[in-house]
Amino acid sequence: MRSELTIYLLEDNSDDVYLFKKLLENDNAIKYSTLETDSLTELNKMIDSLVPDVLVIDLNISESLGLETLVAVRKFSLDIPIIVLTGNDDALGIKAIQLGAQDYLLKTEITPSSLKRAIQFARERLILYTALSQLATRDKLTMLHNRAAFDERLEGVESDFQRYQVKYSILMIDINHFKPINDSYGHLVGDKILQHIAHRLQMFNRACDFVGRFGGDEFVLIVPKLDSKEKLHDFIDNKRKVLNDQYAIQTISDEVVNIPITVSIGGAIRGLDGLCPKELISIADKNMYKDKPSA
């Protein structure tokens, strides 16, 4: 049984549309389903209805010319591999790749094999790029988001606050007495505790919430629309119940030890506590230290 790939073709020349479809006919391994349009608006609607496996776009259509076409398409198709078609201009194709396309083809040189190869490579390149991008924004130990990802998400929610007054909260979480645990059991056990905490934070988490490792034994959450002190208090209580527990850890000598872990949590709400994101982080951090046990 043949696998199937859906391709959206942005092309305003009916002869080129016909030739494109002919190039993908009679493949023994893959059934290519090609849907064409000559409109950027219509292409956007098509993607909203069904995301294709690959986008193939002619850079020169009646409503847009050159690299402007690619820029316009990428605004609504960042997670879709894109192949651009150019008349006879390698330099333009290279620039298209620099702007985010996965591959380009010269219309004068397209063959069935070169087109099918470009489709396969475009999909593989996007998968690889996505994986590398995720690694760049993930903490290697816990696989939570790292500081770079935190800064990016914070910029996004702050933009929503500035434009639409959508409040958000920041929570800082710190493991209590973490240094004595490291000193007693070693850093490998400490690392496993960090991984356990990270796992629970990921499991008991809304899809819209951001969870990251802030550094050391500190974690950070960005929670959109958590906009009142009462909601923040309840949210923090819930996180304590999830995280405060006995954790079974295997030591380097294969001994299983049960280590009681508690956390301190502080939060702050944008629009109620801080005048800017930096101040909000500082207030959440101070509230976290206020939550620390006295001994």
From TrEMBL:
GO terms for molecular function: diguanylate cyclase activity. Residues 6-122 form the Response regulatory domain. PROSITE patterns: GGDEF, RESPONSE_REGULATORY. InterPro entries: CheY-like_superfamily, Diguanylate_Cyclase, GGDEF_dom, Nucleotide_cyclase, Rev_trsase/Diguanyl_cyclase, Sig_transdc_resp-reg_receiver. It comes from the Bacteria. It catalyses: 2 GTP = 3',3'-c-di-GMP + 2 diphosphate. It is an enzyme of class 2 (transferase). CDD domains: GGDEF (cd01949), REC (cd00156). The modification 4-aspartylphosphate is found at D58. One of its GO terms (biological process) is phosphorelay signal transduction system. This is diguanylate cyclase. It comes from Psychrosphaera saromensis. The lineage of its organism: Bacteria, Pseudomonadati, Pseudomonadota, Gammaproteobacteria, Alteromonadales.
